[in-house]
Design goal:
Elements lengths: L1 H31 L11 H25 L1 H4 L3 H24 L7 H18 L8 H35 L2 E3 L10 E3 L2 E5 L9 E6 L4 E6 L11 E8 L5 E9 H5 L8 E7 L2 E8 H5 L12 E9 L5 E11 L3
Antiparallel strand pairs: 1-11, 2-5, 3-4, 4-11, 5-10, 6-9, 6-11, 7-8, 7-10
Helix pairs in contact: 1-2, 2-5, 2-6, 4-5, 5-6
Amino acid sequence: MLRLTRLKNEEFFKYLININTLRIFTIVCTVFLFFGGPGYYSPRSFKYLWDIGHIVFFSALSSLILLDWSTLKKMSFLRQCVAIVLMTIILGILIELIQAGTKRTVDILDVIRNLIGTFVAISFWAPANKTVPKSYLRTLQVLTIFMVIVAFLPFAKAAADELLTRIQFPVLSDFETPFEIDRWSGSGNLSIDDEVHFHGKSSLKVVLKTSNYSGVSLKYFPGNWLNYKHLHLNIFNPLDEPLKIKCRIHDRRHTEGNQAYNDRFNKSLVLLKGWNQIVIPLEQVENAPKTRKLDLRRVQQLSVYVYRLPHPRVIYIDKISLTNSP
């Protein structure tokens, strides 16, 4: 009898420790739903890892509700599932609506990640899952694990490409690896093309539109260019008609300032038919800002764009690299 009482006491203390730990964890995570997080130029892996935090938070929150809410604990497994899923959807939508009034970005995929976290709690921690046939429970657990793995794939993909950028450097992009297009963004339509290439087997095809500004930007790359003298770009114009483009480069200080036109490197170029091998001395880039020197240790973006095209055009970009020779 004494041994049984002692075991019950031990289980009770373990329960208290687990519940209090979950409470503290969910309170801390709640703060991060509205404050902190990655910025526009933060590494992709950090952005995706931050998104995965929704799964972790709602897994902890749902587990806390399932373990500590006496009314819910008395329900059947199916009713627990329905109740906790509805709570997650409602709470997730409310969070997104609140974030819409802040600087945080509203993302409907966050609601899906919230549900994945809830399914982790349901399939592994819900008290009533002991009443479910093992075959059904195992199926639910396998599906939940599959959803978690799918949610982790963007992070794994970004982390792999970030490692590759450091291995490839001083080549910034040559479109020979499967995830490399994610280093780029822009208003033009982007795709990897295997028919036109200056180096290797493929290039970046960019469809330029007729909006005021249309182009493409390289956002994710090692930003310390201090030990190099030239930037090389290879751009293909498939038409006889020359194409006037602009190239801009800016550093971190420009991003954090008022982003004035004369606070960055700007250069106008004319693309003739065929491959245009463009060489930009980094000394010009460094001395481009009017009132300071551009910080070649913290370069943040390279952009190629056009202004008010009369009709859509296509260009191909290949092998962008830093060198010490022209």
